[in-house]
Specification:
The protein is mainly alpha-helical and 159 residues long. Helix content is 65%, strand content 6%. Helix 2 (18-42) crosses helix 6 and helix 3 packs across helix 5 (80-89).
Length: 159
């Protein structure tokens, strides 16, 4: 049997099963993507989770409550409050009182936060462009569909 890139990367001759190999392939591929993104974020003294929060906030100028931000995050982070505090301290986001419920605090992105996202857009997209050249549209749809099956299991379990 021909060695796959995963066999070479993990220096492993064989795997227990095809499902184990598939799962490890997803984990290793995701790690490669995340490390590239981490490097871009670090150049601006931002964590990947903070970048994610800024992207979420940019989608709603009115702001989101902490719970809504946590539900929308790519990776679930129990320390969302601390991450938001850091963004507020750096003036990338601000806390405001909800107009509907004065007891609720919302977080929204500031002009400085939007400018930072615009500055990070091209470096973040460069790796995506590199990957895009490696795959056909059908490949990309298949990857999304296969990963979607995994995601749907979690969504189903949350109901």
């Amino acid at each position: 049997m021909k060695e796959s890139p995963l066999h070479i990367r993990l220096k492993q001759k064989k795997f227990e099963s095809e499902i184990q190999q598939a799962m490890l392939s997803i984990v290793v591929a995701a790690d490669i993507i995340k490390r590239k993104q981490f490097k871009v974020c670090e150049s601006k003294k931002l964590t990947h989770s903070q970048y994610n929060i800024l992207r979420i906030l940019k989608g709603n100028p009115e702001g989101y409550c902490r719970k809504e931000i946590m539900e929308r995050m790519l990776e679930k982070a129990p320390d969302a409050t601390r991450l938001i505090d850091g963004l507020v301290a750096d003036h990338l986001a601000e806390r405001i009182t909800s107009k509907q419920d004065k007891r609720m605090s919302l977080t929204r992105i500031t002009a400085k936060g939007i400018a930072l996202l615009q500055n990070l857009h091209e470096p973040m997209q460069s790796f995506a462009k590199e990957l895009n050249g490696m795959y056909s549209k059908t490949d990309l749809k298949n990857i999304s569909e296969l990963c979607g099956r995994i995601i749907s299991v979690e969504l189903h379990n949350q109901e």
